[in-house]
Specification:
By secondary structure, the chain is an alpha/beta fold. It has 20 helices and 18 strands.
């Protein structure tokens, strides 16, 4: 603990020097090995930076059942290196707020045979003492994935009060849980060109303090998803403009590559020293986001419904399951569908532009990033392309598959059989245990290509996802001739992490 406090106290001055390109040959450096490191001398071997997809978020919440399959932990296990996480005990910390009594925090979601409900609740004033199992770990976590984090929060956000939503009365408490500024303290370091402003307890500040030889950066989904799931994404103020997004992304990648390189004693001019390795990831397009179900697949199970919009291509499936019981024979509103123009806008104008920026940034092909390849070795985990290789059902929602394969009691398959078909969890965006293994293997392939290593894939067959979380299912609900139904409160809660 004392050693970390000493390091943290030096970090603000050290980083200012790092980012300004000044010499690191500083006798005050607490590691005593800034120059002349070999790979085994790096302060940390591996960390992950990102949002809920990095955190191990599953079934609309963060809990050890999902965290145990976070792609970072799986990769670290294959590498045989340390990897601390902010472990959260059952029933977890979920995003369902509507319908939850004041003073209680909902847990992750589970399937009870016909619908989806929070696994449990915890008195909010007891969350810290009963659920946060790793709050006293004396150094920053290796898993720096913060659910809900946006690209523009990586450098300067360190707690809920400084998060994007705070200005709108919607703070992101996951920053408090994972960054732990109240534990470490924080110093806001002003911009000093070429160094941007940053906070020492931000994801950026903590990642640099870790000093990792290998890092992954998987970020950007929260900049478009909340606008996408409104059903009316075109020109939505909830979606970050690609030009702004690209500036924020490049600023972070350049600052982090430069700072971590200096932390490892790497000289980008001479290319001498221990050059950091950074693997970034692309973002999934509409067809690969389980929340959106193609109209053809929808009609195969639910038949033809009137829609307010014309040229509909996708249905927001969880919204439909929360709506249809009270609207039999009704017309689906525009908030429940994506038409051709909206899909094109998301896939090309927004997500496609983000992915082009991600790939161009690490190649030095985006204006202002020309020097980036000299700062670090970059690799790409093309998550979107990898998802395209899967069987279509692997990216379809469990509840849709349940309606498809269990609505006829004479031929109904088991819950476990349905769960095995998909790689995604109940919230429709985050992977389940098997999906996280698939993601880890995609990153491992990129790591092997970048570093010349030969880490083996994790067997998918060895992983199962139980959407019931072991809660007994009444016999009457185990095989049913009705479609799954969601409450509006749970359906809305599935979207809350992107606010």
């Amino acid at each position: 603990m004392k050693k970390f406090i000493k390091i943290a106290a030096v970090v603000p001055v050290l980083l200012a020097l790092l980012l300004a390109g000044c010499s690191l040959d500083d006798p005050a450096d607490p590691t005593g090995q800034v120059n002349g490191m070999g790979p085994g001398d790096a302060p940390t071997q591996f960390i992950t930076i990102g949002n809920s997809l990095t955190a191990g978020f599953m079934d609309s919440g963060l809990m050890k059942a999902g965290q145990a399959s976070s792609f970072g932990l799986l990769i670290a296990s294959q590498m045989g290196v340390d990897y601390d996480q902010p472990w959260i005990d059952a029933p977890g910390i979920g995003t369902t707020t509507e319908g939850i009594p004041d003073g209680l925090t909902s847990g992750v979601l589970h399937y009870n045979g016909t619908t989806v409900l929070p696994l449990g609740t915890t008195p909010t004033d007891e969350v810290k003492t009963t659920l946060l199992l790793a709050a006293a770990v004396p150094t920053p976590y290796h898993n720096l994935g913060v659910p809900g984090a946006r690209v523009d929060e990586l450098l300067t956000t360190y707690d809920g009060a400084s998060s994007f939503g705070a200005a709108f009365g919607d703070t992101n408490s996951f920053f408090d849980i994972i960054n732990r500024a109240s534990f470490f303290g924080n110093i806001d370091v002003p911009a000093d060109a070429p160094a941007p402003a940053f906070a020492t307890a931000s994801q950026f500040g903590q990642a640099v303090a870790k000093g990792a030889l290998l890092s992954t950066v998987f970020i950007g989904g929260n900049d478009f998803l909340f606008g996408a799931v409104t059903g009316d994404p075109i020109d939505s103020p909830l979606i970050t403009d690609p030009t702004v997004w690209g500036g924020n992304y490049a600023q972070f990648i350049g600052a982090y590559a430069g700072a971590i390189g200096q932390r490892l004693g790497f000289d980008p001019t001479t290319q001498e020293g221990l050059k950091p390795n950074i693997v970034v990831a692309t973002l999934p397009t509409v067809a690969n986001i389980t929340f959106f179900l193609s109209l053809a697949d929808f009609e195969q199970v639910f038949g033809t419904w009137d829609t307010t919009e014309s040229n509909v291509e996708y249905i927001l499936i969880t919204d439909f399951l929360a709506w249809f019981m009270d609207n039999l024979g009704g017309t689906m509103p525009t908030t429940m569908t994506l038409n051709t123009a909206e899909v094109f806008y998301l896939d090309n104008t927004i997500i496609g532009a983000y992915n082009t920026i991600i790939q161009g940034t690490i190649m030095g092909a985006v204006p202002g990033t020309e020097s980036f390849p000299a700062l670090a070795n970059f690799g790409l985990a093309n998550i979107d392309a990898a998802l395209e290789t899967l069987d279509p059902e692997a990216t379809q929602h469990f509840l849709y598959l349940r309606a498809k394969y269990a609505s006829n009691p004479d031929t109904a398959e088991t819950i476990a059989d349905t769960a095995a078909r998909t790689y995604f969890s109940l919230d429709g965006v985050h992977p389940n245990n098997k999906g996280y293994v698939f993601m880890a293997n995609t990153f491992l392939a990129a790591i092997n290509e970048l570093t010349g290593s030969s880490y083996i894939d994790i067997p998918l067959a060895a992983v199962t996802w139980d959407p019931t979380y072991g809660v007994p299912i009444p016999t009457a609900k185990s095989g049913t001739n009705q479609w799954p139904v969601l409450s509006p409160e749970v359906a809305q809660g599935m979207k809350e992490i992107w606010r």
